[in-house]
Amino acid sequence: MATFKAKARAVELLGKGQIADLPTAITELWKNGYDAYAKNLTCKLFLDSYKDNQRPIFLLSDDGFGMSESDILNRWFVLGTDSKARGQRIQPHFGLKERTPMGEKGIGRLSVSYLGSQMLMLSKKEGEKANAMIMDWRILDNYDFFLEDLNIPLFSFDTIKEFNSELSKAKKTFQGNLKKEKWEDQKEYREDIIRDWNSFDLPDFIEEELISKFCDVNYHCTTFITLTPHDQILELSDKDRIELKGDSSLTYLRASLSGLHNDLKDPDKDFETHFLIYDASGKYDLIDDFFTQKEMRNADHWLKGEFDENGFFSGEIKVFNKREKYTFRPNRPPGKTTYGPFAIEWGSVEGNISSSQLNNEQYRIIDEKLETFGGLYIYRDDFRVLPYGRTEADFLEFEKRRSLGAGYYFFSHRRFMGYIDLSREKNPTLRDKAGREGFIQNKAYREFRDDLIEFFIDVAKRYMRVDSKNEEYSTYREEQLSEIQSKYKKQSNAAKKKNKKTKKAFLEDLKENTTKIPELLKEIDELEGKITKESEAIEINYNSYNGLISVLEEKKNELRSLKLQKPQNVSVTQRQEKEYHSYQKSYRATEDRVRSCVKIVEKTRERINTENLKLEFNDKFRSHIKFLGKQFSNFQSVSSEGFDRIYKSLGEEKDVQIDLFKIQSEPLKLNTSDTKEDITAKIKNLESIIEEQKITIQESFGGFITHVSNLQIDVDDDFLRSWYEKQNIELEKRIQDYEELAQLGMSIEIIDHQFNVMYSQMNDAINEIDQFARKNKEIDFSFKQLKNAFQHMEGNYKLLKPLYRTSRRVREVIYGHQIEKYIKDFFKNDFKRYRIDFSVNDAFREYDFFSYDSIVKPVFLNIISNANYWLIPVEDRKIRIELEDQEIRIMNSGEPIDDSHLEDVFTIFFTRKRDGRGIGLYLAKKNLQSIGYEIFASNDPTKNKLNGACFIIKKSK
Q: How much is the pTM?
């Protein structure tokens, strides 16, 4: 009798060969965890900088009910198990509601082979012994192996000692699969496998943090540990946390894993997903915040409804502010569809902020998410069906139609946030391909797709299209779009007009002041000579000295009047920027000369008697009173001229409005022959004219009057108005930062009391856990990370408001060598990857701060982080910290700071980094000031020995 025999490669073909990519593999394994009633589906990537780890290790786990030895032998190792395919339900565990099984074919578990070749599987049921299996999926590539030839070690354990003993035996057993005679045709491949198994060694933290848990009788979990991860995983290990979040090539991974469950339909799920990356600084989650239900329903356009079993759609649609019931019937033969009933809901956002009703902050948040996650997703039983929702999976061809005419075919795949809700019970004919690359293109799928395409074309045609040729029929979107864009254009034009005026004034002042400063510098040079001469005289003539002091004060005031700051909302050409930098350089040189004069005067005062010093004091006092009177008289004069113009214009406008009202109401004049009905009608018409004119006046002048009434002397109107500059992309980013801080400030003000209560509770809890953590080494590392992060957060929040009065922190001595170690640990990955030579001198190692750990260390981290970025373009990468002349000098060999920016780098939101926030150095300066230190940047070659950026920290005077 003939029988089938399966080569070992069959497992490879059914597993890794059927999986399209890493997200699909992870999703398949997480589905198995979901079926096992797991509450946490987790991936962990341990980088080689984490604890005692020497190479990247990838771990995938679920805390479901786990597997016994019998389950592994009779279910996990049996391909094509049919319990789920037959619809057999798994009894609920852990108090959770019953779940619909996700698996069908019984081969999803083989996706683990995609994660990497060398694997250790651990699984345990509650109340039973833990089980372990080791495997190297590369042995399946041996063309000569049949399945029955493989020897895969499986063992049980309940202590760490037993695990280590059994693991050693299992490794020897497994290497029986690598006997030389079985690999004659693949000798080099065999050598590679043997080399990896000879270096097979679990780091201590795996034993301490993971294996120990499996020895707990009540523990339940299934974990796959991959010691030689797949290339896509190794790609993650080559990037730092900022690069991971910003790398567009990894967007598909983040998007695929972030939208695993249909949170848009039901935000309250009973499980969590995480993709954690561990490095020297701790852990962070690669999975981003997905769209929320509220964001979807607050979009510019929104639709929700259901297709019934006959393909008829019934639901509701919102286009900007207009809402109505919407029905649709596809052009298809009568009768039930082949694909079954399903629900659909989506939100869509306009592609340009000038056409959106969302405010600036809402649009920014949604737009960023759309960039990463935008698409129409398909969920079956609330679990995502891949690849739908990805950029390349535009199965309804939105972009293809849009290319034919965006005005008619409105929808874009990347501007969607929404879902199609399927179920196995109602849509059994929509079946997955074997490789989880979408649905099989059978009749049900083709009709499903065709009807949806027709549906979206109808929605676009009926509600969204813009057709300027057909004025008789306009869509809801077209009717409202012109009003929204008109409002935006009005604001934009007003801003442009004001910008133009501001820019013109700035450039005129720049030109004028640039010519005046050299003349002033020359005068101050001459004055310095006279003061020096007077100070060196054998006997000082007080009257002459006092006269020179008065002249110096005049020159200081004159220099102050020439100080020019470039408006933040004004863009200038490269040539004008150079002129401004040249002006700044001349201004600083003049300031230096003034300071030189002041130093000579201060030294000269030592030789002047008390009575003359009293005279100098009184002269300065009277002189400043006189200056204040003159200064504010000038301010009043300028303000009076401005308000006089406004007053005159409003008076003229009043006359125009009165005359207009008289003309409009002329036909309504009362006549002696008017009846009661006539008079009543005329009153109604008069009221209509009055109301219309009031509305016009309010629209024309209301905003202006409100603006004038809100004017404050201490507020720069041009600066505030820059919030509304939307045209310039770079300005948009800065405006968003301002809004974030403004909202943070308002939030803190609103929840001040609650925040203090929560802080106090957290602080007490941390202090209580501290003692426990010291006795339980397995949580000690995580607790220290939590405590340091909490104190760091406290240090930053204290800048905004003195919220924390209950803190029990105390100052401590922080030595330079401790900071050195902290920096090396924190940036271990960066220093290694970018080959950066980091060093400190002995004097700094011995230096000590008596302050808060959570203030001092973050300052150094921020400066070193910036240095790492600016060192990338150079070949010889060095960072050095030195203590010399009581100054801590942090220098690097990267790109130097331009002289004109030495002070600007500490200004909030000033940044030259791509995607930079411009907040780090500002906070560093504020933090250091709070503990009695100052920081500044210097290009002095005697201090800046590496010729890159150099920051100097020293105690305040």
A: 0.59
